[in-house]
């Protein structure tokens, strides 16, 4: 790193009120499900990160046991995404509504206990949830579906034209695939996406998608959506409504568990007795035990998903175990890497704020802190991880570390930090609690700032000029002052004690009254009007220019670096959870389980034990 760049972390403190706002704001997760012809379609919208999730293609249900297969899929979706708004098509079994409500209640209770007992705070707190049966007309309406296609195609074309670099290609290809196959492979899922877009568009008007709507009401609802489609631009649909597009993976690699199993295995914290609370160093759940060294938001979320959806694919289990074993055997200082990852700010929030046009100094400080931590991680890799041998096994054992190291290298932290420091005065931003653009970034802004900084002298000179005119004309010193008031411009101020209304009729001064207070009057004259023309509303000009520069910089930054930053954060949090497993295994002297195939071709494993 160049000598003129000094990287350090800034401690950002939130008040309790700010924390509560962050938790409660935009916390809705909506799940839409439809099933027909032996297939199921799904769409999910996560409002807190503005992510639209859907199946890559409709999922084919097991012919022999469709109901059980459907229940397992819904179980997986609820435990993985934890929705609080669920819309089921009227083609689905009505008993599923009761099952989902029960499942949501169970999840709500589990997460509340987790919050109370372990201080875990999720953006989605299940204070309320609802499950509705929705008419199939909201999935199959040709007008509605055609409108969705028209909007997506129009916005997707513009999106591709605006982003010719290889940015968001995944997002673009997923949308194209959804459109092209809406009559075949993605037919049901596309209906779910249409329904969820309609739901989002009318949600603010307190309308509902229920079966008791008549045809006229249906026409009104569709008309409302058509108006929504017409009035929303590219940025609204693809950049404001959902920033991210993701494929929902319903794989056979994991399985789900009911509440009784979760409770019996003590996977998540439960209400502790006073005696249990007094026991220092004791853990009463797998989450508390295995998550001792997991601090990031995404890492905590990932740990819960892994606990509630454990792997049953032996190869993938062994890959995780390889990582843990390799850390214990080869890297004595891996706890330092874990502590570094613990300090990573939430990159998903940072990128989301950039893309939605939210301007806040904490977002920029968090971004800078992210790079400072990544830089330290890069140094850690350089000092602790030697080049891998060509041995296939060694490469496989360090697959996640190699991927993360490669991502960090491709970020080019030095040049990235230089770019930010050319734009942002990081020290002043931290001290003043506002974004401060660095001098020299924009010459026009520098000129306006120079004028604004010398405004006190300019105003004093104008006040002396007017005072001299008054002394020459009236032979008295009224001790007037010249002020600059944003939005009102430049004003002459004098006390009411010395003000005489006849001044307004004096052609020498040409005063006009702007407003008055109990103690002062505020006037304009030709000199003030000249200042208005010469300098303008200087503070507002600077503020508008700064806001425009910040927004442009944020947009360009997000376009170029979004994908790699999000991927680096995801990988880092995955490593954080695995490193926590490694430290616990070392501390507790756990032995690696051994998988063996029995004669009937079933896997058996030795129990996890100390040695």
UniProtKB/TrEMBL annotation:
Coiled-coil stretches: none
GO biological process: chiasma assembly; mismatch repair
InterPro entries to which the protein is assigned, alphabetical: DNA_mismatch_repair_MutS_core, DNA_mismatch_repair_MutS_sf, MutS
Domain DNA mismatch repair protein MutS core as annotated: residue spans: 281-604
Highest taxon above the source species: Eukaryota
A GO cellular-component term linked to this record: nucleus
GO molecular function, one term: ATP binding
Recorded family membership: Belongs to the DNA mismatch repair MutS family.
Protein name: DNA mismatch repair protein MutS core domain-containing protein
Source organism of the structure: Hanseniaspora valbyensis NRRL Y-1626
């Amino acid at each position: 790193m160049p000598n003129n760049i000094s990287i350090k972390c800034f401690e950002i403190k939130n008040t309790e009120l700010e924390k509560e706002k962050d938790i409660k704001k935009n916390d809705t997760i909506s799940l839409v499900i439809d099933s027909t012809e032996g297939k199921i379609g799904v769409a999910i919208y996560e409002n807190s990160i503005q992510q639209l999730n859907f199946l890559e293609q409709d999922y084919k249900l097991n012919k022999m046991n469709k109901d059980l297969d459907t229940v397992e899929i819904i179980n997986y979706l609820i435990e993985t995404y934890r929705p609080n708004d669920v819309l089921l098509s009227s083609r689905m079994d009505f008993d599923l509504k009761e099952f989902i409500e029960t499942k949501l209640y169970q999840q709500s209770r589990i997460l509340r206990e987790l919050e109370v007992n372990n201080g875990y705070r999720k953006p989605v707190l299940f204070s309320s949830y609802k499950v509705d049966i929705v008419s199939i007309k909201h999935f199959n309406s040709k007008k509605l579906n055609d409108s969705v296609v028209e909007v997506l195609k129009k916005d997707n074309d513009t999106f591709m034209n605006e982003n010719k670099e290889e940015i968001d290609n995944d997002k673009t290809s997923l949308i194209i695939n959804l459109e092209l196959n809406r009559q075949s492979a993605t037919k049901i899922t596309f209906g779910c996406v249409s329904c969820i877009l309609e739901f989002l568009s009318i949600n603010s008007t307190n309308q509902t998608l229920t079966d008791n709507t008549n045809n006229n009401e249906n026409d009104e609802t569709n008309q409302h959506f058509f108006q929504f489609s017409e009035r929303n631009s590219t940025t609204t649909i693809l950049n404001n409504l959902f920033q991210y597009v993701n494929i929902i993976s319903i794989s056979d690699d994991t399985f789900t568990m009911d509440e009784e199993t979760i409770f019996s295995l003590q996977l998540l914290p439960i209400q502790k007795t006073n005696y249990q609370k007094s026991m220092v160093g004791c853990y009463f759940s797998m989450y508390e035990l295995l998550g001792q060294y997991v601090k990031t938001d995404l890492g905590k979320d990932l740990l819960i998903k892994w606990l509630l959806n454990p792997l049953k694919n032996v190869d993938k289990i062994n890959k995780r175990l390889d990582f843990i074993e390799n850390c214990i055997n080869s890297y004595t200082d891996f706890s330092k890497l874990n502590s570094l990852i613990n300090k990573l700010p939430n990159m998903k929030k940072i990128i989301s704020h950039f893309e939605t046009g939210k301007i806040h100094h904490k977002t920029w400080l968090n971004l800078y802190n992210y790079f400072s931590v990544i830089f330290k991680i890069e140094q850690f890799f350089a000092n602790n991880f030697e080049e891998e041998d060509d041995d296939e096994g060694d490469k496989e054992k360090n697959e996640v570390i190699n991927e993360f190291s490669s991502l960090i290298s491709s970020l080019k932290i030095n040049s990235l930090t230089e770019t930010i420091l050319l734009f942002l005065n990081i020290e002043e931003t931290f001290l003043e609690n506002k974004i401060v653009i660095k001098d020299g970034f924009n010459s026009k802004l520098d000129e306006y700032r120079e004028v604004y900084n010398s405004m006190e002298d300019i105003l004093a000179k104008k006040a002396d000029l007017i005072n001299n005119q008054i002394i020459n004309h009236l032979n008295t010193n009224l001790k007037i002052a010249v002020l600059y008031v944003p939005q009102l411009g430049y004003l002459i101020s004098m006390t009411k004690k010395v003000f005489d209304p006849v001044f307004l009729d004096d052609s020498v001064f040409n005063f006009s009254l702007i407003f008055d207070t109990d103690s002062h009057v505020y006037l304009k004259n030709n000199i003030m009007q000249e200042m208005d023309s010469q300098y303008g509303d200087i503070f507002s000009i600077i503020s508008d220019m700064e806001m425009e520069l910040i927004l442009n910089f944020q947009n360009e930054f997000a376009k170029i670096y979004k994908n790699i930053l999000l991927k680096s954060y995801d990988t880092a949090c995955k490593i954080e959870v695995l490193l926590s497993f490694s430290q616990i295994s070392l501390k507790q002297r756990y032995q690696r389980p051994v998988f063996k195939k029995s004669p009937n071709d079933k896997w058996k494993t030795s129990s996890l034990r100390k040695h």
